[in-house]
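Quick start: read one record
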Amino acid sequence: MVTKNRPTLLKIFFAAFGVSFLGSLPLGTITTTSLQLTVSGKVTSAFLFTLATVFVEMAVVLLLLKKFKVGTFSDRIEKGIYPFAILFILFLAVKAFFDDPSGSYGVQAIEGLNSAFLLGIVIGILNPLQIPYWLAWNNIFLKKRLVNESLSAVSTYILAIGLASFLAVSVYIIGGTYISKYYEEYNYILNIIFGIIYLALASYLTIHFYKKHYQSALKNV
């Protein structure tokens, strides 16, 4: 039985790993924050932050896989999360632009929240792009019968997603260690760059949110 099921589990693992890895590679809130923590000399915090976001992502994927399918749920959850996510990313942009360039950014991005792991939990929960992304891919995996209701299949699927996301963000952390030696000399410029990235992400989410949920409605008014 184990030998017979092994190819199926391997297929699930590599398919889920590829989807998650490619989805986590583009520059976003999580990768940007991990990179910024790294270049400011907080490599351990960067890994703890990334680990927390991975745990949140795995929980979200499991919840969506078990409870929801593609449909109106995605629209409702987006309307609830997007405004908070946009405001939070704008807050990160302001912190990057105006924070003390001594390297204190990151762990103290939220006043009173002095844990990179907790920061990862917050940003992981407020990551709006993962909801439609995994709703769509869960639906594909279920329709293609790559994932079924068995514990082994679901466990393989979730673990592959978590491992791939962690490795994808680790690429930025490893890259950031090479940039970190220049941080003290160019910290102001780096903070400006990170602030621009956060501002661009917030702008993208705002435009996407407006076009998807309000543009057509306003035209009909």
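The radius of gyration is 19 Å.
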